[in-house]
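Human: Cast an eye over this sequence-structure pair and say how the chain folds.
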Amino acid sequence: MYIQPRTSGGEKTAWRRSSLLSLCLILIAACSPAPNSTNVSTSAAAPEPATAALAIAAPESVGIDSARLDRITQAMQGYVDQGLLAGVVTMAARDNKLVHFESVGYRDLEAQSAMSNDALFRIYSMSKPITGVALMILYEEGKFRLADPVEKYLPELKDLQVFAGTDDNGDIITEPAGHKMTIRELMSHTGGLSYGIFAQSPVDSKYVEAGLLDTGDTLEEFTTKLGQIPLKHQPGSTWEYSVSVDVQGYLVEKLAGQSFGSFLEERIFDPLGMTDTDFHVPEEKVSRFAQVYGYDEEGNLIAGEGFEGANFLADPVFESGGGGLVSTAMDYMRFSQMLLNGGELDGVRILAPLTVDLMHRDQTPKGMAPSGLSMQGTGFGLDFAVIEDPVEAESYSSGEFYWGGAAGTWFWIDPVENLVFIGMIQQFGGQLPNVRAASKRLLYQSILDPYGI
C-alpha cells in the first residue's frame, strides 16, 4: 500500500515506502527494480525461503517492538519536515532478518522526486571497510603479514622521512622514522599519514600542493606523489585519519596483479550480489542517484557537491578505496550482514570468521598518544572504529564496529545484539542533524528482547 504524505507547515512532504517485496526479490534475481515500482508494506511481503539471508520478518519475531521501531521513520520524517534533510533511507536487520527498510523525503528536491529504497548514494568513507575486506582476502591467501613494512610491497614509499618542524625560512625539517610503517599501521590510521584536507600543518599543505586526491591520477601515480612527502607523525605514535586506505587500494592492485576495481567486482561485489556498487553511476542508473545538499547562510538546503571537482557520473581514473564508491542501502546491508555472519552470506564465503574478528579488534599500538576516538571509549581495528567502552562512547554493546561517510551515510554492526543498521543521506554542512545518534537510540529502545543483558 502507499503511505500518505505527512504534512508540515501546511505543505505535504512527498515520501513513500519502496517495495520491500521487490527489493528482497533482487537478492535472488540479482537485478534492479524499476524506480517507480509499486509500494507494499512489510506485512504484505511474501515470505522468503528460510535459508535466505535478509528475509523480511515481523520485528516481533526477533524481539523488536514494531511501534517503537517506527519511531526511526518518524524521526527521519521530522528532519525532512524541518528542512534539515532532503531525504533519508534507513534499514535494520536482526538475526539475519530484515525488519526495517524505509525511505522518506526526496531524492531530488528541485525535481520533487521522492526518495526510494533503491536510491544510489555517494558513500565516501564507507568505501574504507570494503577496501579493508579486499586486502584481508589477500591476507588470508598469504600475500602479506600485518607486521610487514608497507615499503616491502610498495617501493614508492621506501625510506620515508618524518616531519620534525620547520626552519627559519619555513622549510620542513625531517628526521628518520623510528621504524618502517607497517601494514597494520596503514590499516589502523597510525602509520603517520594525514589527509591534507581535515587538518592544517606544513605536511597537510604539501598534500594539497601535490593534488594527492586528484581523480586524474592512477593509484600508482598517487602513491608516487605521497612518497615524496614526509610522514606527519612517527609510525605508531598517533591516530590520524588519513589517505592510508587509498594506499591500501594500490596495495591490493600490487598483491593481486589486477586493477583495484576489478578485484572488488570479482571478489566482493559479484559474489555478494552488490549490483549497484561501483566507482561511478552508469547512465542507466542516473535516475536513482540522490542529489547531494549543503546549507546556505540561512540554513536552507542548497544542491551542490561537497568536494570541488567531484563527479560520480564519470568512470574515474583514480579508484579511491578511501572514498570513491557509490552504493545503495541494500548493497551495503549485504556487505555488512556478511561481516556480522563471520564472512559469509547466502552460502558465499568472503572471509573466515577469525579474519573478520581480527578486523574489529582494536589494532592501535600500545602506548600510542590518546586520540579523539580513544577519549570516547573507542578504538580502531582494520578499517573500522570499534566500541571498547559502551558507557564512555554512549553506545550499547562492546565490540560494535562502524564507520560513516562524508556526505552523511552511516552504519554499524553489533555482534552482541546480532544486528546491522544502515543509514543513507546526502548532506554536507554544520547544520546536519545528528542522525547517527538519533537512529541508534531509537533502534535500541525498540529492542524488547536484548541479548546483551
In short: The first helix runs from residue 20 to 29. The CA atoms of residues 139 and 145 lie 7 Å apart. The domain at 124-279+316-324+360-393 is CATH 3.40.710.10 (Beta-lactamase).
